[in-house]
Amino acid sequence: MKCLYDNSFPKILRIRKKKDFQAIYSSGKRYFTKNFIIYIKENGLNYPRLGITVTRKYGKAVKRNRMKRLIREFFRLNKQLFKVGYDYLIVVKRDCNLKNYWEVKEELEKFLTEGI
User: What is the pLDDT of residues 66-79, one digit of tens each?
Assistant: First the structure.
């Protein structure tokens, strides 16, 4: 699949449906980092998919959208760290204090290489 080897983030790699989010919440394996809760569940596909949840408690729309952009950018540039055939749902904790891409990258990269 071409999109796994380039730096794109097409719709096929996104979790977009409510039923998919609910399935991951209910039966996915849950991991905790300092700033994220990460749910991982097998998807039976030959590519990883990413879903992101940022609640209103985290902040106003500008702040929430910025965090989603940072996480999507990490996924787009580091697809090789994500296991093929799994869905990843990243929930941003209310007290997350990450400010830039490098902080997000450091925490998620550490989790994906050491935490699983």
Answer: 999 999 999 999 99
Selection from 87, 83, 79 nearest residue 41 by Cα:
87
Alpha helices in 2-49 (DSSP H): 18-27
Q: Which residues of 49-73 are buried (b: 16+ CB within 10 A; e: fewer)?
A: bbbbbbeeebbeeeebeebeebbbe
Directed axis angle between helix 101-110 and helix 61-77, to 10°?
A: 50
Q: State pLDDT tens for residues 17-60.
A: 999 999 999 999 999 999 999 999 999 899 999 999 999 999 99
Could you give the CA distance from residue 91 to residue 29 in angstroms, rounded to a whole number? 13
C-alpha–C-alpha distance, residues 106 and 28, integer Å: 23
